[in-house]
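Cont'd.
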Amino acid sequence: MALLEIDRVSKRFGGLQAVSDVRFSIDERTITFIVGPNGAGKTTLFNLITGAVHPDEGHIRFDGADITHISPNRAAHIGIGRTFQIVKPLGGLTVLENVMLGAFMHTSSPSKAADAAREILNYLQMEKAMHVTARGLPLAMLKRLEIARALAIKPKLILLDEVVAGLPTAEALRLAELLQKLPARGVAAVGGVEHVMRVVMSIADRVMVLDHGAQIAIGKPEEVVRMPVVIEAYLGTKYKELGL
Amino acid sequence: MRRAHWLAAVAAVVLSLLVPLVVQTDYKLQVLFRIYLFASLGLAWNLVGGYAGQLSLGHAAYFGAGAYGLALFSGTLGMSPWLAVLAGVAGAMACALLIGGVSFRLRGPYFALSTIAFAEILRLTAKNLPGLTGGDVGVPVPALFHGNINRSFYWAAVALAALSFALTVVISRAKFGYYLMAIREDEDTALSVGIGAARNKLAALLISAALTALAGALYASIFLFIVPDQVLALDVSNEIAIVAMLGGAGTVLGPIVGSVVLETASEIFKNTFKEAHQLIFGVLLVFVVLFLPGGIVGTIAGLLRRSDIPGEGA
């Protein structure tokens, strides 16, 4: 059974059809990337899954339960973690405290939450920044902090909104290497990216292409990039220049 | 908190309780009463305004509920005074439930404005219900203490400040305290890690309202007579918020430092500048907001941290 099922979901904001008749499913312990430019509907899709907004049509199921009208904090409790495209650190708190706040979902003890947070910070290679106030971190570290905090709730699914955007290639590759280990930790990941990047190609089990809110292709990365509809309607000549 | 900190806190409370052995003039005891009372009020406000970051400018509502609760439940309904204090606390918590239930749907300045509105509604209602509250003429308040009342009220204020301080320390180190800080820093992020923001803000406000009402009852009882423009006034709300912000919102010691500084200065200025001391409050607040956003304690802690080796957190 699929972990997450998006069933003919549509969402309109005034005159803008943000998401239109999207249907796909995610299996446990897999990595999926949703590709689409700014405004294609990726963030809206993530907001629909986490209950920040609710669909006009269609259903969303997670782990066997209908979550179409769930609230954001309930979504966290049933195992959906998320990061924000525009990073939202708890700026006045330290890196460790930021991650502890995720860990508090499973314990009331600050020392146990700190232990759990340290393990995740080690995994994301952030242990040296543990006692730094989050506000002072560079972007690359803030992106990792988003992931660390979301992982601390022990999610079954983590939604990574533009998690590599704005990062230098070397850092993006290092991060991809870490993300690749998520399935082994029991976590399925759905990432949103603007372009089909080498980073995505190497770690994605599946790629879904969004164009103006509509889903135009889904499949294995190497299949999707060969689909004429994707090349013509979306990737254009830029993709060929990259020579992927 | 490490053992040395607890010992220091206990020593401070014991020393405070011993002060009347040395200080015996009524005036000085009354000034000290006010310092401890506003320290309690600042600590109570700090849970909502500091830790949870919800700028309440209407704490006079709970202060007044405690004051009028004591006057009305005891005077009109004939309850024993201490029972009436508890009834006033319950009344303040009921107000908090209502005010929080509505105001916490709003964020930022809209929340602050709505808290002012609720406190003003209560003040105007009290002014215009002379049959119940005595209106502008006022209502007598039963004495909670007899004999050497200035000493007794002073001790009561010290006890309330100690209770507020202990609660603040416990909360700030517990999961609940972390949840409040997360809500302050970013409510969407708090929701994303499963924190019920509405529920936690309301819990903080209920505790804050209860402590504020206790202080309101003490204040009313030392005056023996209250009017709406005194205990439900915007001035009261402002002074409570300024005490906490001047000392350092979101810090454990801030409201205590703030009360010592502000109430001492206020006593001095009141005699020298008369009504103009309100102007000095205003200028002080602008100065703090612009140049010392962490307040006195927050700023000093920040300077110490910068020159210190990062310690082991949590």
